[in-house]
Amino acid sequence: MAHIPYTIFRSGTFYYNRRVPKHAVEAYGQFIRQALSQDPDEAAAYAERLSNVLEASWVNPSCVKPVDVAAVVESFKPRSVLLSEMSEEYLSLRRIDETPPRSALATFISLAGNRDVAGYTREDAKLFVCHLLKRGNKTATIRRRINSLSAILNYAYSELDIDKRNPFTRLLIQGEGEDSLKRGTFTNDQLKQGYDKALSSGSTVKLLMPLLGETGCRLAEIVGLKLEDIDLQEDLIHIRPNSARRLKTPNSTRTLPLVGYAKLAIEQVIQRSEREWLFPRYIKGGTCKATHASNALNKWLKRDFEGMTAHCLRHTMRDRLRALECPNDLIDQIGGWRTVGGVGVSYGRGYAVEQVREWLQRACL
Q1: Is the pLDDT of residue 140 over 50?
Q2: Considering its fold, how many domains does the chain have in total?
Q3: Do 257 and 354 fall within a single domain?
Q4: Domain match, 135 and 223 both
Q5: Which PANTHER family does the record match to this protein (predicted)?
Q6: CA–CA separation, 316 and 309 (whole Å)
Q7: Among 91, 107, 237, 318, which one is most buried in terms of CB atoms within 10 A?
């Protein structure tokens, strides 16, 4: 067995064993002896790290700063933390809709158990995918669930300093993408019909249709608006992160003009709003519950518009702008899409608000 500096081996355990320099004897005593580990590699690593800490504490002969040796060694040892505990910590730090990750966690824990985060294996991850496939989940849904769990484990490994490959990394899903359906788009007649019905319905949920359809925004961007984000004098909304919801990409922060049906709809919603939020019913516990709004809106849209959803409105706006030969980078700016046209398009401040207003007015119904 190779010798490990400053250690002795007794009764199956390695101990740190070191004579203390004269100038530090008053703080530490003549010798330091502390149990390290039964594993030689682990003991060698702990001994080296403890030596560094001790030498730093007595490097100045005139000012020795003693440390709690037992506590220092204990801090070297990896913590055993349950997945549920790390998940709560992760979700408390991230301003995201908690429903998808909590759904993924509940399913995964029911299959693999609530264990130490370092104990999960590739087989656990494969079991999770197999289970979701058998339940009939779409592969896109499964991929989102994998991404949620992967993000939590990445956070745990980083915080706990665990050197381990994430079991969800590069996990393949059989037939991924083959079950996807291309999202439909609304006709102009369908949009007008829906907008008119929304404005006369008295329903704030239905008013989301013209707000989404005439701005191209993501649903959470509208549902999570604060009243201070809305400027009715200039007919503008400021899409920016806040305490209830973050934005999907850096490009998502933007200012959009309100034209046509969007302006009429937001005027109605504001009259029914209270305190600081445009849609207070979907702000619960300081978090934007966009999924709840999506479910409520989609129930109506799917019934009246041949299975269309709220996200189809976003696709429709892109098609409408494309049909007008609007520049691609301006379309990306309006929708807050990540631009893929090369480095140059990301330079500068982008298009002015009045230029954006001009194109939205051209697309206005």
Answers
A1: yes
A2: 3
A3: yes
A4: no
A5: PROPHAGE INTEGRASE (PTHR30629), PROPHAGE INTEGRASE INTS-RELATED (PTHR30629:SF2)
A6: 11
A7: 237
